[in-house]
Design brief:
Number of helices of chain A: 9
Radius of gyration of chain B: 24 Å
Oligomer: heterodimer
Largest interface: A-B, 81 and 86 residues
Strand order of the largest sheet of chain A: 3-2-1-4-6-5
Distance between the termini of chain B: 64 Å
Number of strands of chain A: 10
Shape of chain A: globular
Structural class of chain B: alpha+beta
Strand content of chain B: 25-35%
Strand content of chain A: 15-25%
Radius of gyration of chain A: 19 Å
Shape of chain B: globular
Number of helices of chain B: 8
Structural class of chain A: alpha/beta
Helix content of chain A: 25-40%
């Protein structure tokens, strides 16, 4: 038996964990058909860990839904499969290519795969009749997210209306929705990037290997380091270099840049982040850089 | 990069947490102060600061407008106001902080109440030139009503009153006189300049007459550990875990978040509302058996006897249990355009329990500026607060809000729209 707290104090990480577990249980109890949106990134893996703790020793009372961009890193898919197998979870994969074929999404050659996830995701939620969808969003990520509720109401069109948000008080979450609507649930709302890493470190959580420093061929483009591969080839004047890099987010591989790093374990990453001077999205996500209000626009349309 | 020791890494994750709510209008310099706290605690990143600097320049400002760091939504930036509660995060070596940043305008009482509902501390900002305004009094009233245990009155723009001790003392005195009518167990009054940073993180040389803490020092050290109730055991059952697998065939665990007291193996307990008694056979956190559970831990409880327990029930001690009640007397903050009227029917959520409630009587409306009780009110409009009697369809297992902020609070939901329309704080139940 663990005799943990003689002084009846919970560390901030334990408090965040307790709050997130509370949210998972609340949703499982009140919603008919929840689903966990799984991207394969560290935040959604932390969500899986918290969900595992919330319902142990029972299996997760909801499936996982992944939007496959067709451009995921192999390392991400490997880690996903390992988690799914260990938890015995049900996994639903919705692909952008299928969504394009079904007419949910139009590929005009200009729209990024990340943006096309919106239609794919909404299509999958509607087809499966999901009433609540857990997402790994954190309020420290971006200014628009700072105002989003833990339970974020979406209308028939999957849209977020920032001016019509429901007040959210104490830990009393309101899960009422009408037919056709669904709720986005953000159990990691109050976690920061550093909290996520501390938790991964403490719990020894398995995450994709590309989060750790490794040698990789990259080109520098628009101030970002992109991994050279199938889609990314050097254009006129660009030089391919071999560098020690790691990824801070793991989205679509044509849009996600890496950073130079020597951090090969979680403790080193925590050190690196503690002194980092650029936010994780600003550094490595091409799709957030077009306008200051980019995230707000995509959220209104139904993005994560 | 050389990694620091594991001990150092662990210490950063194991620090404690302070949630605080800020109140004040744009004019009081609230956004500037928050920008200052983020900047001086090195929680602002280069790209965020650069974006704000370039915006400030393009608007023709003489200095970097730190308020731009926290103005999130485009519609707010266009109007130059804050329209919703925003949550901010920063950490110092001593603590992690969650700020509920609430707008100060009169029409947004509901946001202030929302932000204060989870706060350990409330930070009210006043402009030293203006002194206490109707708005700052209202903020103090709301923080008191929401039982936020610690309050800081930050007197800002001290640079614009020549760092006058007299001004500080006058506002201090006026506030403490006003606060005698409120429930404010702990008050700190700090003279600052958010724009220049005086007494925010670093002690100011301009206020030699002030011997109290800087704002940051106070936030880092204010004692919040004893604000929690570790005496009265309250465990609202949230979810029953029944794996129905071969390995855990007979497993039956009651999952929930501890709302009060300490639960441990061997404790005799009562399950409400049924009144059945049993004994705790095990307390678990994930796959570990733990010796004790206390607020705000999310745990799983096992009982020795096979009693009927389901979501919405409450586990307490036989000699210290809330009395199930359907007649509720509460302060309600009304949060929607259509007024609250007698005989109105609403859905109610209290702990993990859902039911319906009918408004029996609106006893009075509280004027949050004068504390006057208007007994002729008859209804509550958007952003108004009043004392209301409710009759519920299911018994609530509640405590007075002054005793327990979790078991003493509820929300009201419009049954047609599904929107949260009211927040309630229980006075008594009978």
């Amino acid at each position: 038996m663990t005799n943990t707290h003689v002084d009846y104090q919970l560390s901030q990480l334990d408090q965040l964990e307790a709050e997130s577990i509370h949210i998972f249980r609340e949703v499982a109890a009140e919603f008919e058909k929840p689903v966990l949106m799984f991207s394969g990134g560290k935040d959604s893996i932390v969500m899986l860990r918290l969900a595992e703790k919330a319902f142990f020793p029972a299996k997760l009372p909801f499936p996982l839904l992944q939007v496959d961009t067709g451009l995921d890193f192999d390392e991400v898919l490997t880690t996903r499969d390992s988690w799914v197998e260990r938890l015995g979870a049900r996994m639903i994969v919705a692909t952008i290519d299928e969504a394009i074929a079904a007419g949910h999404v139009v590929d005009d050659g200009k729209t990024s795969r990340n943006r096309m996830q919106i239609g794919t995701l909404l299509g999958a939620i509607e087809e499966n009749g999901f009433t609540a969808a857990f997402g790994g969003g954190r309020r420290d990520e971006e200014k628009a997210r700072a105002k989003e509720r833990v339970y974020s109401h979406r209308d028939d069109f999957g849209q977020w209306d920032p001016k019509m948000q429901r007040p959210e008080l104490w830990s009393l979450y309101n899960g009422r929705i009408h037919a056709g609507e669904h709720m986005r649930i953000f159990p990691l709302s109050n976690w920061t990037e550093l909290d996520i890493w501390h938790y991964i470190h403490r719990e020894e959580i398995e995450i994709p290997s590309i989060y750790f420093a490794h040698e990789r061929e990259v080109v520098e483009r628009d101030g970002m380091l992109l991994s050279v591969g199938q889609e990314i080839q050097p254009k006129g004047g660009e030089k391919v270099e071999k560098k020690m890099v790691r990824f801070r987010t793991v989205g679509d591989r044509t849009q996600t840049g890496c950073v130079e790093s020597e951090a090969t374990d979680t403790a080193a990453i925590i050190d690196e982040i503690a002194i980092a001077r650029v936010t994780e999205r600003g550094a490595t996500r091409g799709d957030d850089r077009f306008s200051e209000a980019a995230m707000e626009d995509r959220k209104k349309e139904g993005y994560f | 990069m050389a990694s620091t020791t594991d001990a150092h890494t662990a210490a950063q994750g194991e620090m404690d947490l302070l949630r605080f709510a800020t109140a004040g209008s744009v004019d009081d310099g609230k956004s500037t102060l928050i920008g200052r706290l983020l900047l001086d605690s090195k929680s602002i990143f280069e790209d965020q600061l650069e974006a704000v600097e370039s915006t400030s320049q393009s608007k023709g400002y003489d200095y970097t407008d730190l308020a731009l760091l926290t103005d999130g939504l485009r519609s707010e930036r266009e109007q130059g106001i804050t329209i919703d509660v925003a949550y901010r995060y920063f950490a110092t070596p001593a603590r992690k902080f969650i700020i509920a940043d609430t707008p100060g305008h009169i029409q947004y009482t509901r946001n202030m109440v929302t932000g204060a509902s989870t706060a350990d501390l409330g930070l009210v900002l006043v402009d030293a030139r203006q002194g206490l305004t109707e708005q700052s009094r209202r903020h103090a009233v709301l923080l008191s009503l929401l039982r936020v245990p610690h309050l800081v009155l930050a007197i800002n723009k001290m640079d614009l009153v020549d760092w006058s001790q007299e001004v500080y003392e006058k506002i201090h005195k006026e506030f403490t006189t006003f606060a005698t009518k409120l429930n404010i167990p702990d008050l700190e009054v700090i003279p600052i300049s958010a724009l220049q940073g005086d007494n925010v993180v670093n002690r100011s040389e301009n206020t030699p007459w002030y011997s109290g803490p800087t704002l940051m020092h106070h936030l880092e050290h204010v004692h919040v550990a004893s604000d929690r109730d570790l005496v009265d055991t309250r465990f609202p059952v949230q979810y029953v875990i029944r794996p129905k697998s071969d390995q855990y065939h007979d497993f039956r665990g009651y999952a929930g978040q501890v709302a009060g007291g300490v639960l441990k193996k061997g404790d005799e307990v009562v399950v409400l509302p049924s009144g059945m008694t049993s004994t705790i056979s095990k307390v678990e956190l994930f796959d570990q058996e733990i010796s004790e559970a206390f607020p705000p831990m999310s745990v799983t409880i096992h009982l020795e006897d096979d009693v009927d327990v389901s979501r919405g029930d409450m586990i307490a001690r036989p000699k210290n249990a809330p009395k199930p009640s359907q007649d509720i007397d509460a302060m309600i903050c009304w949060m929607t355009n259509e007024p609250l009227r007698p005989r109105q029917k609403l859905a109610i959520k209290h702990t993990t329990r859902m039911g319906r409630a009918m408004v029996k009587d609106i006893q009075y409306r509280l004027d949050v500026n004068s504390l006057h009780r208007d007994q002729e009110a008859g209804e509550l409009s958007l952003n108004e607060i009043g004392r209301v009697q409710l009759r519920t369809t299911v018994p609530l297992l509640c405590d007075p809000y002054s005793k327990n902020r979790t078991t003493g609070s509820f929300i009201l939901i419009d049954e047609a729209t599904g929107v949260t329309v009211g927040a309630g704080m229980i006075n008594t139940a009978s």
